[in-house]
UniProtKB/TrEMBL annotation:
Designated name of the protein: Protein AF-9 homolog
Record InterPro entries: YEAST_sf, YEATS, YEATS_dom
GO cellular component assignments: chromatin; nucleus
Main location: nucleus
Biological source species: Dimargaris verticillata
Coiled coil: 179-220
CDD domains, per database record: YEATS_Yaf9_like (cd16908)
Length: 226
């Protein structure tokens, strides 16, 4: 816990971006201790540009499926990652502990381990979706930001002395988040928005036509009844 004399800085919020998730690849002919295992995977938590985040992270605890030996794995120095082999997908709890001077409580993140080329919704998770899935690594990462609201003075100083890295210009296998990916996503959202607006306009035109036809039909019925 933070020392009692440490004061929190009111109105200050400092964010630190992180990436967490996993990469996995088929074992192929590789021999492992458990014959049923089909993939080797690594789950990790790191800075957005793979920078050292130990100045604010004290340790990371990964909670694996209970069928693994010692399913609770503690990593107290970078790289914050665990490598294993297996055959099934499951949820991994990733608990971040911050440096003692921070006085901050741990934060728990959850990641669904991905081994296969698509997720539950059918979205591709391949490193390169344009290539055949055979023996190709699967990557499933998430971008998030850890926000320290009103940090204590000394911890705020440590955070400000260690500036966070910016997003890299281009995506890589270990980091799918980049300025280019951000621009691509904005372009995709703009395209979707245009498609939605076009669909709405088409429905408006169809509604106007249907309303006009309905009015004409009423007039014709009225004329026949006269």
């Amino acid at each position: 816990m933070a020392h009692k004399t440490q004061k929190r800085i009111k109105g200050l919020a400092i964010a630190r971006p992180i990436i967490y998730g996993n990469v996995a690849a088929p074992l192929g002919d590789e021999k492992v201790l458990v014959p049923e295992h089909t993939h080797r995977w690594t789950v990790s938590l790191r800075g957005v540009n793979n920078e050292d985040i130990s100045y604010y992270v004290r340790k990371v605890v990964f909670k694996l499926h209970e069928t693994y030996p010692q399913p609770t794995r503690t990593v107290d120095k970078p790289p914050y990652e665990v490598t294993e082999t297996g055959w099934g997908e499951f949820e991994i709890a990733i608990k971040m502990y911050f440096q003692t001077i921070s006085g901050e409580k741990p934060v728990t993140l959850f990641h669904h381990l991905r081994l296969h080329p698509t997720d539950a919704l059918g979205n591709p998770t391949l490193v390169d979706p344009t290539k055949p899935p055979i023996n190709q690594p699967v990557a499933a990462y998430h971008y998030d930001e850890i926000v320290f609201n009103e940090p204590v003075e000394h911890f705020a100083q440590v955070l400000l002395e260690n500036r966070s890295s910016e997003l890299p210009a281009k995506s890589t296998l270990s980091n799918p988040y980049s300025l280019q990916a951000e621009q691509d996503e904005l372009a995709r959202l703009e395209k979707v928005n245009q498609q939605v607006e076009q669909t709405i306009e088409e429905y408006r035109e169809r509604m106007a036509t249907a309303t006009k036809q309905h009015s004409q039909l009423k007039q014709e019925i009225a004329a026949l009844e006269a």
